[in-house]
Amino acid sequence: MKMTTNASGCTLTTENPSEVGEKKSVINPELWLTCAGPLVNLPVAGTHVVYFPQGHSEQVAASMKKDVDAQIPNYPNLQSKMLCILHSVTLHADPETDDVYAQMTLQPVPSFDKEALLRSDLSMKVNKPQTQFFCKALTASDTSTHGGFSVPRRAAEKIFPPLDFSMQPPAQELIARDLHDTQWTFRHIYRGQPKRHLLTTGWSLFVSGKRLVAGDSVLFIRDENQQLLLGIRRANRQPTNLSSSVLSSNSMHIGILAAAAHAAANNSPFTVFYNPRASPSEFVIPLAKYYKAVCGSQISLGMRFRMMFETEESGTRRYMGTITGISDLDPVRWKNSQWRNLQVGWDECTGRDRRTRVSVWEIEPVTAPFFICPTPPFYRPKRPRQPGMPDDESAYLDNLLDMSNKDPGLSLVQWMNMQQNSSLANPIQPNYLSPLSGPVLQNYGAPQISQNNLQFGSQRSTMPLDPLQKLPQAATMSPSPLASL
Amino acid sequence: MKMTTNASGCTLTTENPSEVGEKKSVINPELWLTCAGPLVNLPVAGTHVVYFPQGHSEQVAASMKKDVDAQIPNYPNLQSKMLCILHSVTLHADPETDDVYAQMTLQPVPSFDKEALLRSDLSMKVNKPQTQFFCKALTASDTSTHGGFSVPRRAAEKIFPPLDFSMQPPAQELIARDLHDTQWTFRHIYRGQPKRHLLTTGWSLFVSGKRLVAGDSVLFIRDENQQLLLGIRRANRQPTNLSSSVLSSNSMHIGILAAAAHAAANNSPFTVFYNPRASPSEFVIPLAKYYKAVCGSQISLGMRFRMMFETEESGTRRYMGTITGISDLDPVRWKNSQWRNLQVGWDECTGRDRRTRVSVWEIEPVTAPFFICPTPPFYRPKRPRQPGMPDDESAYLDNLLDMSNKDPGLSLVQWMNMQQNSSLANPIQPNYLSPLSGPVLQNYGAPQISQNNLQFGSQRSTMPLDPLQKLPQAATMSPSPLASL
DNA sequence: ATGTCGGCGCCCCGCCGACAA
DNA sequence: TTGTCGGCGGGGCGCCGACAT
């Protein structure tokens, strides 16, 4: 198994040749991430994550273009979320379609400690190397057999090696490798009236080889060795495998739930696949991201927030929205789940995916104006929190713990209670509770928390020692209540 | 849902447009069966079948090119076989690869009666319409862009409409439809020196459209309306979906077992997919086929048998073999399962698939010579059974019941006991037990059998009325023991 | 009987600048 | 700045019979 070590010292397992067969190539992580899109943030191997079976099931439903309707057995011991150690993350690309996906090995753990939270938070900072790239949606001319590919001027100047403009016309041979390490060669020429950058010879082979059509996107990046890499993103989000021909949609959903339930009961490892472009929402969330979102924010009806969306050109853009409801997405199967339990409205059209439900860790709360939120419980004169603004890292971490130790805002218990008890009639009047009880992270005496049924995962098995961490057995903290409370 | 009724009055559900999407075409059953191969025998909707989760799991493993190795939770209440009603059979073809597969809806039932057995036996006789067809493996010349398709002389004369030989050269336009009802047109010409049948114009579009390579096969059939249909069979049995990118192999296996266990516990319907060309063995067996094989034959070490194999040209051929062992394929997970529990050796090379393990219903026992089988328990002077020989139907059915009522040979209980108790040291000496007890089918007083744990499926739930059958509630018979005895 | 190849006609792939949006 | 098109040259697709097996 090949490991790459990034700047932070965290390891990212990229490919397991023994499992994929004779394939010897290693997926380039930068290229994989660029293909996955600007919003995808893979958790780092060795850190703690929160796994949502409901979201996992949702991704399969999206891949199959089918609802989760059929009768699926209840797994009463299966939580709506599971605290896990992420043992490995391997990057893959479908050899037929070039669709990127990740394979993650998770192992449920009953609780986490301070260091795990710190490590998770640290890992979130170093995940995305900001590689130089460009991404263009293919036009009808680009994909027709009549001609080549028209390269946007800025893109060519930023990514491609500089041309020798003493030549007439200036031209060079470009060699780029895709996710499977296949080489593609193109003739890059600067000609025409007015002058423009074009890819000619070799381009049609690429289009037909990848079966690209107008609307699909192609992207080029330069890695740290100045090597040219290229990837594709298909436009039509229609699932190719309408019916799986191997397993019924029902069996797939059952398989996911049963595998998770079995792993939870035995604290044993299990494997999931994450397809970034199949479904809009991630279902394996870094612990720190989850923790900060759930413990660090007040969620209330009428609350204003911002959220990131992907633009056509693979950029990001924030849209403003308002929380219009807090309710279970599936009150029958997943009661009191935090998975997409916020109903939202948007100030403007958010493009293709009009999401009406999001999870709390997907949004950035905006400090409410005084007439809506007269006593902001998060107001700190000395260190105001600006969600979404990059801070000095040490200050940020300090802030994270500071928040937990001194001013946790709503505890999770309060928040969950609020969810259950609040009447959702008035969308303007905020109906959160003011912070009353002590901070969660000060509860170092774990037993009483355990009695209160506040642990992640299964209660009947004792916590196995995490093989990846040799931490002193400090006090464990369990700030999250069970959804089945 | 479109239903077609064949000669016997049995219905075969062919396609469910609402589930596949906007696709309105109905899969032609004859074409589907021809593509599936001569050995495939689909059970008929409305009849009883025996479902083997182990075989189902095996097919998924073959599709994924992966062993069933990972830790899979035990389902102690899941039998190695389940008696089911087959509610529906819908035929499908992968839109990308044209691979044929069938979707079956099964519902566990605890027992069956005499009429169910008769209906199952009847349904086996009417399944295969012997359509006229030809099948040719494509040569390098057939698939190259240099030329067209060379049609074997006999094939063209048998399947294609006759040419007008007054023309110079004789030629016509052929229109054939594939499994998706897509029309393909070819120029059929009789020319060259020596004269031969060729498909020219249109052929290369077909080859590139289906992505055929040398070694793949193409087949043409004429349906009852004299319409030309065509299908393909790919040569390389390498699974296209090496890694599923949606579900881990482990979750798939768990999904199969959990779905079957849930259905068995609740006597509720569940759905399976059967890929005829992914794995060599069927895992949904008509009840009568299973019953005749298990109750109608003696199985012993050293026993001689014949078995059908598919030839290169989509024909059938029998190979002779010897039973060299009787043992569990998976003694840990599937103890005392009848799934491929016979180890066999072959007299000659059986071609590509050298199967070393088969199930008893896959073979045709050959009456052993006297020096090996001194007291053949099946010897009936008045009506000797000739396995594999087509009999008069009424006589055959009579024989089936006759056998059950008067001379069942080994009862299943005896046979299972034999499996467990026999020492397998001597491969020549037959070590079966001689028939001792009375016939199973005479045990009409079901309760005592139920006490002996001889029922299919779950015991705790009562048998739900089969909605497809309005049979008089005759006495039920339960000849099969549980594998977990 | 049929797989492969040389010959060769012509279609269309693909490179070019001219426009226009 | 860049999407589309007419022009047009040449490579290869594809039809033919000649062989060989």
Automatic annotation (TrEMBL), chains A, B:
It is found in: Nucleus. GO terms for biological process: auxin-activated signaling pathway; regulation of DNA-templated transcription. GO terms for cellular component: nucleus. The keyword Transcription applies. Keywords: Auxin signaling pathway, Developmental protein, DNA-binding, Nucleus, Transcription, Transcription regulation. It comes from the Eukaryota. Belongs to the ARF family. Auxin response factors (ARFs) are transcriptional factors that bind specifically to the DNA sequence 5'-TGTCTC-3' found in the auxin-responsive promoter elements (AuxREs). Homodimers and heterodimers. This is Auxin response factor. It comes from Helianthus annuus (Common sunflower). The chain holds residues 1 to 485 of 968 of the full protein.
